[in-house]
Amino acid sequence: MGIFFKKDFLVYWRDRKEMMVAFLLPIALILVLGFTLPNWAEDGGEPLEIKAALVVADSREDGIVKFKTGLEASPISDEEKKALAEQAEAIRPEERLTELFADEKVRSFLEVVALDERSALRQLEDGQVDAVLTVPEGYTAAALDMLLLNKGDGAALMLAAEEESLKVNVLRSVLNGWLSDMNHEAAIWSAGGDDGGDRAGSETAGRPVGGIERIEGVELVGSFQYYSLAISIFFALSVATTTASKAVAEKREQVFRRLLLAGARPYRYLSGKAASTFVMCMLQMTALIAASHFLFRLFPGKPFAFWAGMAAVVFMLCLAVAGLSAVYTALLFRMDNADAASGISFILMFVFGMIGGSLVPLNFLPDWVKEIGGWTPNGLALTSLIQWIQGSPVSDLRMPLVYQGLFFAAVMAASLLIFPRRGRG
Amino acid sequence: MFPIFLSQWMKEKRNPVLLLLFVGLSIMATLLFGGSMNGKMRIDVFGEAGALSKSEAAWLGLLNRSESFVFRPEDEQTARKKVREGRADLAVKLTGDDYRIVASVEGPNVGLADQYLRTVYERELRLRAAAETPEEAERLRESIAAFLERPPFSLLTTAPDGSELTRYNMSLQLLFGFALFLAMLTMGFKINAITKDKTSGMWNRLILSPVRKTEMYAGYLLYGTLIGIVQIVLVLLVFRFVFGVDLGNRYDLLLLIVVLYAASSVAMCILLAGVLRTPEQFMMLFPAIVPLMPLVSGAYMPPGTITNEILLGVSEAVPLSHAMKALTDVAIYGAGFADLWIPIAKLLLIGVLCMGIGINLMERRTA
Questions:
Q1: Does residue B199 share a domain with residue B327?
Q2: Does residue A279 sit at the B interface (CB-CB below 8 Å)?
Q3: How far is residue B289 from each of residues A359, B175, B177, measured CA to CA in Å?
Q4: What is the pLDDT at residue B89?
Q5: Is residue B300 within 8 Å of B175, Cβ to Cβ?
Q6: Backbone conformation region of residue A297, classed left if phi is above 0, alpha if psi is from -120 to 50, else beta
Q7: Which of B149, B179, B202 is the endpoint of a domain?
Q8: Residue-wise DSSP of A327-368
């Protein structure tokens, strides 16, 4: 096997440009994904900057006057009228809106400018503002009518936008959340009467603590760590495809037949392929993880045991990849059509990458696909490494490692079965 | 040109398995990825003592009145395992009248879920504080629900002229994104035939034949483009007529964009094939480069999510971003030809540039 290993390794080594690409491309990828996406995924990072115009077409005084006029006409006692009028003075829906926009958290991503209707619409058209929020005429009156007299359809704010963009959606959900809080308050107030309302509004109401559960010794996995691992693992998978495509050239140039004529045993050719793939894969993974560790400070201050566990996972993954390369090679020599064989390796790599979560965000996948994807060599390596980073015990690593070993054994056995025997190659 | 085209077709006809596999898998993948996104986000829930207690089950009922989340009870071990393995973004632990989120990877979904959970909890706790007895709480809840049937405050979202604002359809974007992305894979595989024919000596024999060089390239490229078009159209037809997805009513424009996309993608494949000399190198790097395209062009996220200048710049060079934008514009906003000329022009530009440089590189290599 030694001599075959040397041959295959030299074939790899000869094409150093390709090796550089296989090393630099993933680094570039990690860089791009790590620098651009986490800003969005981690704690909001780069905040959205939404600019909205506020058009107030309503006058509070007019609204109260109108409400009182309406009140006069209604058939209730004077005392009640007086109480209602007082309440009306106390309710200031538009002030709450100002409060919302002045809120520290809201202000960090939303800028509101007060404009008149015409210039607001013009700025919206020019794209200077993302949306126009209008407090329509009669807003106060409608709100008071509904709140105090249960009359009319309530008050509606108008939000105008050119198209439904992310910014408009965020603005809308902020407004909707705020409105639904107000509605809820009003609901409790009206249902519980003054008494219940007071208590509900008071501080005696319990508040949930909520938040993310922090467990001692468990760490969150950062986007950079995630992308580095996912991409390195996917490129490890591609080593098997590379081996197979090199075998295509050897088939084309009759290397294999010449070897047979020279008296070599077929399976030694195959094991040379697997061994060289394994070594290449290990080299590539080590280089990638080491480079991204030093470039991006992935795992600072981790103990030796951590690296040992990681090495074990990588080692078993590379074994599985080596097994895959043996299957690809065997298929190549069994099938007449080399294109079909390399097409199959291409497809397999792609399917593994997809369902193992290396190519597409996992949350797009239905549950059952995720389940299957967890059993692909790359998917399994990724999940076990994610667990390992979070500080799960060694016993959690045992099963995945054994499984990768079984996978290797199974595909090696399959490739030996598929591989043509002497005299039939 | 025609003979080249025919020879490609004959090869395919004699050995159709591979192409069928490519197209079939692509369609399946689009169905799988594009189709599963219409739903709500599923979150596993477990109680303090493992199984849900009665009061925790009541909370679960309250939580499930959401439009964007589905909470379902799950065994604690399983739920935690899913989160640890990164197969679920988060799980929720209900602890009496409080909750904790279990998450291992930081992400936007965690924040969204936390916000929702907090609102539900705060409201319910407030309501319980207002009521003295459970019966009263129940009565309160009912009257509040009745009150909220006609809320005093509301928000109306419209277009500037007061007409209804068209809702953006994210699952449609995903559908287009996957259909285009996977078609590029098939096309690349077909374009690789040129480099293969070069290494096998077929190309030299063709050069000696009366077929002109332009015709040779045209034959290969046209074939690749056509396969891509057929694949995308097939996917769209399946979605339109089997799953009843609304694609708007400008099928002519959709087809035009698909054709342009296929052509510019084939051009891009030629460029790649020109840079990567051998079919082997192409096969190795192509499947690593293509999956980046939807990621970079933001196909997986709502438009406007990516704000990074570099990433936006890179995505300008990717045919997928322009084609996807044009397709969604047509299908969702009913854009006409006049609205589409920018993405169309960009697609053409990418196509011409890539084709020019790519063929030049290929010719240089053979010389």
A1: yes
A2: no
A3: 10, 20, 16
A4: 76
A5: no
A6: left
A7: B149
A8: HHHHHHHHSS-HHHHHHHHHHHHHHHHHHTTSSS-GGGS-HH
Question: Could you tell me which chain B residue has the CA closest to the CA of A234?
Answer: B288
Question: CA angle at residue A365 from A359 to A371, to 5 degrees?
Answer: 100
Rounded Cα–Cα distance for residues B229 and A300 (Å): 49
The whole-angstrom separation of Cα A408 and Cα A400 is 12
Q: Does A143 contact B292 at a Cβ distance shorter than 8 Å?
A: no
> Measured between alpha carbons, how far apart are the two ends of chain B, in Å?
22
Number of folded domains in chain B? 2
Structural domain spans, chain A: 2-41+222-418, 50-189
Which residue of B21, B159, B304 is in closest CB contact with A167? B304
Distance from CA of B274 to the nearest CA of A (A): 15
Architecture of domain A50-189: 3-Layer(aba) Sandwich (3.40)
How many residues are given for chain A?
A: 425
Residue B108: its pLDDT value, please? 63
Which residue has 């609205």 as its token pair? B339
Angle at which helix B2-14 crosses helix B213-237, to 10 degrees, equals: 50
For residue B191, tell me if it sits in a domain.
Answer: yes
Taking an 8 Å cut-off on Cβ atoms, the answer to whether A383 and B86 are in contact is yes
**B32 & B45 share domain:** no
Sequence-distant (≥ 6) Cβ neighbours of residue A66 within 8 angstroms: A138, A141
Q: What is the DSSP letter of B242?
A: I
Among B157, B325, B332, the strongest candidate for a mutation testing the A interface, having the largest count of A CBs within 10 A, is B157
Q: Is residue B157 part of a domain?
A: no
Instruction: Please tell me the distance from the alpha carbon of residue A176 to that of residue B145, in angstroms, as a whole number.
Output: 17
3-state secondary structure of B155: strand
Q: Which residue has the tokens 């996995």?
A: A221
B285 touches chain A (CB under 8 A): yes
- Return d(Cα A359, Cα B288) in angstroms, integer: 9
Contact (Cβ atoms closer than 8 angstroms) between residue A32 and residue A228: no
What string of DSSP letters covers B8-21?
HHHHHHHS-HHHHH
How far is the alpha carbon of B241 from chain A, nearest alpha carbon, in Å? 23
Q: Do residues B21 and B139 share a domain?
A: no
For residue B72, the cross-strand partners are: B44
Q: What is the ipTM of this complex?
A: 0.72
- Asked whether the beta carbons of B36 and A366 are under 8 A apart, the reply is yes
Joined together, the tokens standing for residue A60 give 């509070």
**CA-CA distances (angstroms) from residue A17 to A240, B281, B285?**
18, 10, 12
Half-sphere exposure (Cβ direction) of A90: Cα atoms closer than 13 Å: 8
Q: Which two tokens stand for residue A270?
A: 């195959």
Residues of A in contact with B159 (CB under 8 A): 160-163
- Do residues B211 and B352 both lie within one domain? yes
What's the CA gap between A188 and A93, in Å, rounded?
17
For range A331-348, the mean pLDDT:
80
Residues paired with residue A112 on neighbouring β-strands, in sequence order? A52
Taking a C-beta distance cutoff of 8 angstroms, is the pair B212, B287 a contact?
Answer: no
- Is B154 within 8 Å of A157 when comparing Cβ atoms? yes
| Between B107 and A11, residue with greater pLDDT | A11
Report chain B residues whose CB lies below 8 A from the CB of A331.
none
Q: What is the mean pLDDT of residues B169-177?
A: 82
B222 in Cβ contact with B6 (< 8 Å): no
* B169: Cα within 13 Å, side-chain hemisphere: 23
More confident residue, A111 or B96: A111
Q: Which domain holds residue B111?
A: 41-149
Higher pLDDT, A43 or A55: A55
The helices-and-strands tally (H runs, E runs) of chain A is 18, 4
CB A345 within 8 A of CB A244: yes
Kindly state the average pLDDT of the residues A207-223: 66
Neighbouring C-beta atoms of residue B208, cutoff 10 Å = 7
A100/A93 Cα distance (integer angstroms): 11
